[in-house]
Amino acid sequence: MEEHTIVVDGDVIAGNHSEIRYGVIGRSTILGERVTLSGDLTSTGDTRIDIWSQIGGNVKTDKNAYIGEFVTIDGKLVVKGDLDIGNDVKINGGFEAKGWIVVRNPVPVIVYLFLYISELLRLGKDEEVEKALEELFEDDAESIGLNSLIIPNGSKISMDSIKVPSNAIIGNKCRLVGNIRATSLEMATGTTLYGSIRTIQDVKLGSDNIIHGNIISRGNVYIAAGTHVLGEINAQSIKIHEAARVDGVMRAPGGIIFEREGDDALTDSELMDLDI
Q1: Contact 68, 53 (CB under 8 A)
Q2: In whole angstroms, what is the distance from residue 125 CA to residue 134 CA?
Q3: pTM of the predicted model, to two decimals?
């Protein structure tokens, strides 16, 4: 997360009614219905923007673009591939497209997937349908890409806060700005967060993370070796590795457990499955 832009090595998927007070740079980008994006949207892959969404800057894609009805783009639209665009789209800065331009309402992603699977079933390709379903609904992180950004429906991301209505999962070596508000939080390794963490359920921090703020949770908190929390921790219970560091006060009515170096250390995969 830079000053005005969120930079993602992989794909970006923003759920319906999300509000993102940044620009976004990613591979393929998909914005759901009524998504508000304050800055530029830049993609090296395809870009799909669903109906009633608003883009506060330019939209640039190296491949194809699919723009739904009633979308507003305050800046310029630049498409190096084909452009499918719906009715009543407002592009205040004009547009360029090097490929075909088709004025029609693009098929929403979920409808496209339904039609695709229906056609495979009609052709009797059961094995391909099973494979497609496994790829679509597999929960493994590799199925969506380790570097992808997935924003749940109704989330709000700004310089002040990162609010999601459900669970937050953060991978390795991220740089995040804002106070995180989520149901629960899982963080892998090497991430720096310039903000605090507040959850209803558990917080699980992997190794070598830096948290520039407090951690407040109604659940339990686990902190692995090498992680540094510059603020306080308030939780139901706390389990912390002896090689971790907390500058502030730790409060936990359920108790505080210190994990020593000689104990069975948790791997990153075990950390995500931990129930403390």
Answers
A1: yes
A2: 15
A3: 0.81
Q: What is the pLDDT of residues 62-98, one digit of tens each?
A: 999 999 999 999 999 999 999 999 989 999 999 999 9
DSSP state of 106: P
What letter represents residue 52's amino acid? Answer: W
* φ/ψ bin of 62: left (φ > 0), alpha (ψ from -120 to 50), beta (otherwise): alpha
Nearest to 18 by CA among 32, 2, 1, 28: 32
How many angstroms separate the CA atoms of 169 and 182, rounded? 10
Span 25-29, average pLDDT = 94
State which amino acid sits at residue 209.
N
Burial environment of residue 73 by CB neighbours within 10 A (0 to 12, 13 to 18, 19 or more): buried
Is 101 in contact with 82 (CB distance < 8 Å)? yes
Is 54 in contact with 70 (CB distance < 8 Å)? no
Rounded to 5 degrees, φ, ψ at 86 are: -85, 180
Cα separation, 108 vs 100, in Å, equals: 19
